[in-house]
Design a protein that fits this description.
81% helix, mainly alpha, 24 helices, 577 residues
């Protein structure tokens, strides 16, 4: 009793456990779907409302994302949201789940985005070499990708790397690629910014006319774009005081417009430009105020203003002080240039391409070696199969030779036996021929006897049928005839007795004939019986109500049908008819 209670209690616990497991699985699945739905929503908000997308992503419980695909999607969206909200993270682990997953399973668009945002994080960390390699990998997917805007962002990011490493030619190349991509995507905002960037490149290359033209056009096109306008106004103001035909009043007007109309804070460079422009127009009071403020900056920001302090002192005629600022500025620039030369992006990319080329060659060698091994393996297998088949063929040929030898010996023995038996066979054939002739004669005699038996019945029937109006027939003849012609009555039962009697006497000939002919009606069955028992055509016509010509025709057709039969009894049927 105790055992039964324990078993019952255990079964109840098992059922409860299974129920709670199922409930937990159902709840988890629903929760997981809700988190994935949040990811989809965040993705749709990313373009227009990146701040809302970031809040939504940060609210997602990552422990509920079980599949690698879901984790990769979360990783990529998080990196995108941080970048679009100007949160410059340096932790590559943010985007690595997406990079690792999409490297093997993603589309060209997913791979392009993953490598772009990985490069952006590496750039934020100052690891420009790694960023350049990453952007180069991402560029490999750009041609097959449909996200033209991300293509443009990657090109501009690559241009940033070349700008930081003072490679003006490559910077210009990628900025032009970015402009082309943004125009194709219809992204006016980024197209304007990229045009401003190209103007800055022309300015740094002292292509003053090109730079001035781009700045003028950009300012007209980007009036509603405060970000682009701040870029255009700030850099155009700097251009106007460093180009050969200086326009300090135009520079001051642009900076004033930037600060007042667009409510933008001025950068250190803007203040340096303002101070230098003020000095050029003779406003030394404003220039000195700004200069004193700039000199109070720490060493970290000092490099930005050294150039402008040098230009101001040079304009004032204080060449000794100007030379001092110039030497200090050049020293800092030399240190930067030395650092860039020892850690060149070009060298890094060249090393990367070389390593990739070496990797490709190594993989090609491995592939070639694998091909050779497979070919060698196939040759070995072919030799094994060929040897086995040859051995099998040789064995078969030996067996054939043995059998042929046995056959020759057998033929010899059979020939001898045949010669011995030939005489016996000849004598047996003579005996068999005589027996067959005797048998045919007996059959004919039997048939004739059998037909004579029933022809008598036919004659009595004929006498009876043609004397029914006479008054002198005897009573016993009538009774005799009546008993004899009972066999040919229309009565089905009596006809069946007649047919059974024929089958009994002639080895079931009616039964076999009906089976061979197929569909035989009652009238045709009676016609066949009357023909077999030897009734004369006149008699058959009288019984069945047919003309004599019809009887002959019907009998002829019956014989033709029988001749077409494939039956062992065909000859017997024809003899009886």
């Amino acid at each position: 009793m105790c055992g039964k209670l324990i078993a019952r209690h255990t079964s109840v616990l098992t059922v409860r456990c299974l129920f709670f497991m199922l409930l937990n699985f159902t709840v988890s699945s629903c929760y997981n779907r809700s988190q994935i739905a949040k990811l989809d929503t965040a993705g749709s908000l990313m373009g227009e409302r990146p701040d809302s997308a970031l809040v939504l992503i940060q609210s997602i419980d990552t422990s509920s994302l079980r599949s690698r695909a879901a984790k990769a999607k979360y990783s990529l969206l998080q990196a995108m949201a941080l970048d679009k909200n100007y949160i410059d993270t340096t932790d590559v682990n943010v985007v690595m789940p997406a990079v690792d997953y999409y490297r093997r399973h993603g589309t060209s668009d997913e791979r392009l985005k993953a490598y772009y945002y990985l490069g952006r994080i590496q750039e934020n960390a100052g690891d420009y070499n790694s960023a350049a390699v990453t952007f180069s990998i991402g560029e490999g997917y750009a041609d097959d990708a449909t996200d033209i805007q991300t293509q443009g962002l990657l090109y501009m990011a690559f241009a940033d790397i070349y700008n930081k490493t003072r490679n003006r030619a490559k910077e210009e190349e990628y900025v032009k690629k970015g402009i082309k991509a943004f125009e194709k995507a219809g992204d006016i905002k980024h197209s304007n910014l990229s045009s401003g960037r190209l103007a800055i490149i022309y300015y740094s290359g002292q292509e003053w006319q090109k730079a001035d033209s781009l700045f003028s056009v950009g300012i007209e096109q980007a009036k509603e774009d405060t970000v682009a306008m701040s870029v255009f106004l700030s850099n155009y103001a700097r251009l106007k005081v460093v180009q050969p035909e200086q326009d300090p009043w135009g520079s001051l007007a642009l900076l004033q417009r930037l600060r007042v109309d667009y409510k933008r804070s001025l950068s250190l460079t803007d203040y340096g430009v303002w101070a230098y422009a003020a000095s050029l127009v003779g406003d030394e009071h404003t220039c000195s105020q700004i200069e004193n403020q700039l000199k109070m900056l720490d060493e970290e920001h000092k490099q930005t203003i050294l150039y402008w302090l040098y230009r101001i002192e040079q304009h004032r005629g204080n060449y000794e002080k100007a030379l001092e600022y110039n030497i200090e500025s050049n020293a800092m620039n030399s240190a930067l240039i030395d650092n860039l030369l020892t850690d060149s992006i070009g060298q890094t990319l060249q090393s990367y391409y070389s390593s990739e080329d070496e990797k490709s060659k190594r993989e090609a060698r491995i592939l070639k070696l694998q091909f050779l091994l497979v070919a060698l393996g196939l040759c070995i297998i072919f030799l094994i199969v060929f040897s086995y088949q040859k051995h099998k063929r040789d064995k078969r040929e030996r067996e054939v030779e043995r059998l042929l030898k046995i056959g020759e010996e057998s033929n010899k023995l059979l020939t001898e036996a045949n010669e011995n038996l030939q005489g016996q066979v000849t004598s047996l054939q003579i005996s068999t021929g005589e027996l067959e002739k005797t048998l045919r004669d007996l059959r004919k005699a039997y048939v004739a006897t059998y037909k004579d038996k029933f022809s008598a019945i036919g004659e009595l029937c004929n006498a009876y049928m043609y004397s029914d109006k006479r008054t002198d027939k005897k009573e016993f003849i009538v009774r005799k005839v009546e008993s004899l012609i009972a066999y040919i009555s229309d009565d089905d039962r009596l006809h069946m007795r007649f047919e059974n009697q024929i089958n009994k006497d002639l080895n079931n000939i009616i039964k076999h004939l009906k089976a061979d002919l197929g569909d035989v009606d009652k009238k045709e069955s009676r016609f066949i019986c009357y023909c077999i028992v030897g009734f004369a055509p006149e008699m058959i016509g009288s019984i069945l109500g047919l003309s004599i010509s019809n009887v002959y025709t019907k009998k002829s057709r019956l014989k033709e049908r029988i001749k077409g039969l494939d039956s062992p009894y065909k000859e017997e049927y024809l003899r009886m008819l």
